[in-house]
Amino acid sequence: MDNEQEYNPNLITVQDDDGVEHIFEELDRIETDQGRYVAMLPTFDSEEEMLESDSELIILRVIEDGEETYLAAIEDDDEFDEVAEIFEERLADLFEIDVIEADVAEDQ
């Protein structure tokens, strides 16, 4: 029996408004007083494609309408910032990442 753990990401297929399917790796889900949210990263077919991308964490709102579940962009900047901060803290703990905050000069 092999002692190595196999990595099995939680993959989600999302269809955009044009009917094109995109595959994402779900990293985390949260629920706040404002709603439910998911943090995802795009997946790639090759290592080269991954290295050439500038992929960033994608945070979307989960909307349930009867039997259907949709993912939608968060339109409100304050809501997005609040949710992004929660995911940043959770993912930093989960993946043992040290978050480096950029110092911005206040006298600009």
Number of helices: 2
Biggest sheet features: 5 strands, antiparallel
The percentage helix is: 10-25%
| Strand fraction | 35-45%
- Low-confidence spans: pLDDT under 50, at least 5 residues? 102-108
DSSP strand count: 5
Distance between the termini: 61 Å
What is the residue-averaged pLDDT?
80
Shape: globular
Task: Lay out the secondary structure.
Layout: E1 10-15, E2 21-32, E3 35-42, H1 47-52, E4 58-65, E5 68-72, H2 77-94
Antiparallel strand pairs: 1-2, 2-3, 3-4, 4-5
3D structure, described in words:
This protein is α+β, with helices and mostly antiparallel strands and 108 residues long. It is built from two helices and five strands, in the order βββαββα. Strands 1-2-3-4-5 form a five-stranded antiparallel beta sheet, with helices on one face. β4 (58-65) and β5 form a beta hairpin. The protein is globular, with a radius of gyration of 17 Å.
Short précis:
This protein has 108 residues and is of the alpha+beta class. Helix content is 22%, strand content 36%. The chain contains two helices and five strands.
